[in-house]
Amino acid sequence: MSSAPLLGACERDGKGCCERESPAPAAAGHPWLRRLVDTEEAWAQLQFAVPMVLTNMAYYAIPLVSVMFSGHLGDVHLAGATLGNSWATVTGYAFVTGMSGALETLCGQAYGARLYRMLGLYLQSSLIMSAVVSVAISVLWCYTEPLLLLLHQEPDVSRAAGEFVRYQVPGLFAFSFLQCLLRFLQTQSVVLPLVVCSVAPFAIHVPLNHLLVNVLGLGLAGASVAISVTFWVSCLLLLAYVLRSKEFSETWRGFSADAFKYVLPTIKLATPSAIMVCLEYWAFELLVLIAGLLPNSTVSTSLIAMCSSTEAIAYMITYGFSAAVSTRVSNEIGAGNVEGAKNAVAVTMKLSVFLALSFILLLAFGHSLWASLFSGSAVIVAEFAAITPLMMISIVLDSAQGVLSGVARGCGWQHLAALTNLVAFYFIGMPLAILFAFKLDFYTKGLWSGLICGLTCQSSTLVVITVRTKWSKIVDRMQLEKANYVA
What we know:
Structural class: mainly alpha
C-alpha cells in the first residue's frame, strides 16, 4: 500500500513536505493558469472527482430506471412508483447515505495519520450501525401505504407506492452497506473500482427490469425487486474487491470484536452527518409539496419538481468535488499538514465555482430544450424560462455549499453543518418561501427565491466557519488522539 494519504499524488520527505512523483499534465505549460490555481492539486482532484461523479450518477439512475419501467404499466403505476421512490429516498436512502459520512472523517483522518488498522475497525463499526438503522427503516417502510394515506395521498397511488417500497427492503440493507464500503475506499483515494462496481450493475439493471416487469409480468413488484438485486450485486462486488485485493492488506485485517468499541464514536459523528444531509434534501422535497398548494397547482408542482431535478443533477457534479475535498482535508489533517488542507480547500472552491458557471451557461442558452425533455406543455416551458435566472443563482450557491459541506465532513464538523442547515432552511428559507409565494403572490418564483435565501445563509455560514478555522488546533487534536488509536 502506498503510504501517501494524498490521492496517490505525492510522497513525503523526512520533514513531512510533499514531493510530487510527477507533475500534472496541465502544470507543464500555461504559467497564467498556474498563477490562477495550483494545477497539480487541481489535476489530482479532477482524477478523484470524475469517477465519484460517475459513481453517483449510476446509483441515482438505478431507481430512476425502475420508475421509468413502472410508468409504462399505467398512470397509477407511474404515480405510485414516483411517490414511492421519493418516500424511499427521503426516509431511507438519504439517511443511510448521510450516516456513512462519519467514515469520511474517521477513516480519512486515520489514513492520513497512517493508522491503517483503524480503517477496518471503523468500517466494521459503521456496518453494524447501518444494519441496525436499516432494520428500523424497514419497519417504517412496511407501513408506507397507511402513512401515505395519513398524508392524504390518493388511495390507489398510496397502495402502488407501498408495493414499490416494500420490495426494496432487502435493497436498503445492501445500499447502506454499499455506502460504508464506498467511503472506506474513497478515503484511501481508491475510486476507479467504484465506477466499475456501480456502472456494471447498472448495465444489468436495465435488462433485469425488462425481464421482471415485461417478460415475467411482475409489474411494480418486479421493478422494485430489480432495484434490490442491483444494489446487492454492487455491494457484493465491492465487498469481494476489498476482501481479495492486496491493496487493503493493511487497512482490512479481517473481522474483529474490537470494532464494537468504536460503534459509539461512529454514531456520534454519523447522527449529525445524516441530519445534515436529510435537512437539505427534505427542504427541496417540502418545496414540491408546498407548490401543490399554489393556484394552478399542476403547473406549479411540475415546475418546482423540474427545478429540483435540475438542481440535483447539477449537484452530482459538485458531489465529486465535495468527496474530493473531504478526502483531501481529512487525509492532510491526519498527516499533520495544515498548508495542504488549506490549499485543497482553495483549489476545490475554484474548481466547483468554475463548473457551476459552466453549467449555468448551458442552462442559460439551452433552458427551453432542457424543459422540453420534462414536458411538452408550452406553458411549463415558458414558466421554466422565467425562473431560469433564479436557478442560476441557486446552482452557484449550492455548488459552493456542497464543497464546504465536504470540508465540514473532512474536519468532523457535521454537528455545525447540521445546525447551519436547520437554521438556514427551516428558520429562514422555508418561511421566506411561503411569504414570497403566498403573501406577496410571487408564486413559484417566490418559493425558489425563499430557497435561495436559505442557500445564501447556509453558504455564508459555512464560509465563515471555514475561514475562521484554526487548522493547527485540529491537527494538534488529531495528534493527541493518536495515543488512543489501535495502531
